[in-house]
Amino acid sequence: MAKKSIELTCPHCRQTFSSAEYGTPRPCPHCGDRVGLLSQLDNLLEQWFYPRRWRADLHQPNPYYLLEKLWTANGQGVTLYEGIAPQHANYDVFRNLVTRLVARGVDEGWIELEFPDDPLEENPVYQLKFTDPDRFAKGVEALFPEVDWDEQIEVPTGAAAKGEGSEPREARASAKEPTPIGTGRRARRRR
Q: Which residues contact 71 (CB under 8 A, 6 or more apart)?
């Protein structure tokens, strides 16, 4: 299926132009400056929302809101927060900082944002792919320097996660199984 042509606005000269080549950085046909992915996403979300602006169940999305929803989907944001357990940042601050890091990654190209073929349909599906996870990890490390990054982080698998909390912490500690993220980091935080 061919991509639908969309009106984009250059953030530099504010001129509009039609393009079916969204989803990759494009030069503006008027001034030649780069129209990055975040600018394109902002234009697409604005055009998606405009005919739906009177719906009470929707609020106007922006690129950072969408990126946050993508990287925190399926509890991944909470899992990352509990795994890292930064001492001086609550979850809201953590989520905001990492969302800005993800946005920078999308703009610089080390995180890939897949645009739908028709971003103006009722429920367009965007996807994030971390093409350079090491760079993302280094970016998160730089955001939270107080965390001991040499400590091993164990993420419980499905069966281990379901069993967590069913036995006392002392019994889990005596067993030679990895400590789930939540209990290990919370105990360290109290010290």
A: 77, 98, 99, 102, 128
Tokens of residue 91, six digits: 């979850």
Residue 184 CB contacts under 8 Å (≥ 6 apart), including other chains:
154
The verdict on pTM exceeding 0.90 is no
Question: What tokens appear for 52 in the block?
Answer: 């739906």
Give me 90's structure tokens.
């609550």
Helix (H, G, I), strand (E, B) or coil at 86: coil
Q: Which DSSP letter does residue 84 get?
A: H
The Cα–Cα gap between 69 and 75 comes to 10
Tell me if 65 sits within 8 A of 49, measured CB to CB: no
Distance of CA 166 to the CA centre of its chain: 32
Q: How many CA atoms lie within 13 A of 62 on its CB side?
A: 4
Tens place of pLDDT per residue across the chain (191 aa): 456 777 888 888 888 888 877 778 888 888 888 888 888 888 888 877 776 767 776 777 888 988 999 999 999 999 999 888 888 889 999 999 999 999 999 999 899 988 877 777 777 888 899 999 999 999 999 999 887 777 776 655 553 444 444 444 444 444 445 445 444 444 545 55
Distance of CA 98 to the CA centre of its chain: 7
